[in-house]
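Tutorial handout. Part one gives the primary structure; part two gives the three-dimensional structure as tokens.
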Amino acid sequence: MFGKKVIISNIYNQGGKKKVSERKRLYIVIPCYNEEDVLPETEKRLTIKLENMIENNLISSKSRIVFVDDGSMDKTWSMISQMYKNNLYVIGIKSSRNRGHQNTLLEGLMTVIDDCDMVVSMDADLQDDIEVLDLFVEKYNAGCDIVYGVRSTRKKDTWFKRVTAQGFYKVMAWMGVDIVYNHADYRLLSKKALKELENFKEVNLFLRGIVPMIGFKTDIVEYERNERFAGESKYPLKKMIAFAIDGITSLSIKPIRFITSMGIVIFAISILLLAYYITGYFLGKTVQGWATLVVSIWGIGGLELLSIGVIGEYIGKIYMETKERPRYIVEEYLKDEE
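Part two.
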């Protein structure tokens, strides 16, 4: 364990007010994967923001910035370790290997659950507007256990990104998933909500769909998402599609029901066609239809393969759930010395 630490500023209020340490402890949990390009600026901006909130008596001086390394291949963890030694507000968590964004986020949330009063999760790329953190805390102080950061506009997205993202939320809603429109993973959770989230044991994580299941008093904070400060997005199209499939199959059984309905419809059509061809046979009509036959075989065969694939996706998830493997393993936890 590294020795702790250089103190950045005086964190007590003036004018005879109560000490800030009596305020609630806010932990900002940030999953990181190969984020060496953005970490220095992220640390700088969040430190300034945290100090301002402490000086304004919004949060406790024991509030912290939690960087969670998701098995990065670059200098991310060494940078987090150095920040931990030099910055009063930074603590670090190192995952034993790369487990993906959702598992790493959960790892951070569950690791700090006993040290904080509330947690805000956000990405490391500074696209989430940190200036609305005050609004998150104000709504928490007003009694909200969950506060969602919701994008007010998608004007900065490309046409493709905007259409696919909005389509994703609409499909999820159509599938019966309780999901907050235009919300990603920028949210506040109280300790009470974290304790309930801890009871959700599924391995196939989709936190955007799981958190609304918790219930409790909720609210939203609208903000405009910024451009990525530096580096490249860790969610290319391939990962976005996989993420969407995981979200749908983890939280909805409508695809299975759709296959059943499709099977009934195709079976009904086949009965009608059978009746039609039998009638034609007795009326002496010859049926040419080789092209129709080939197209039908290929069409039905394709539908069967698609159906098997969808069913297989669900069976695969059942397989992973029954193993009950750990969703994450903490290799190292750099925290305040007692």
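Part three, for discussion. The beta strands are 26-32, 64-69, 90-95, 118-121, 146-151, 183-190, 218-223, 330-334. The CA atoms of residues 307 and 315 lie 12 Å apart.
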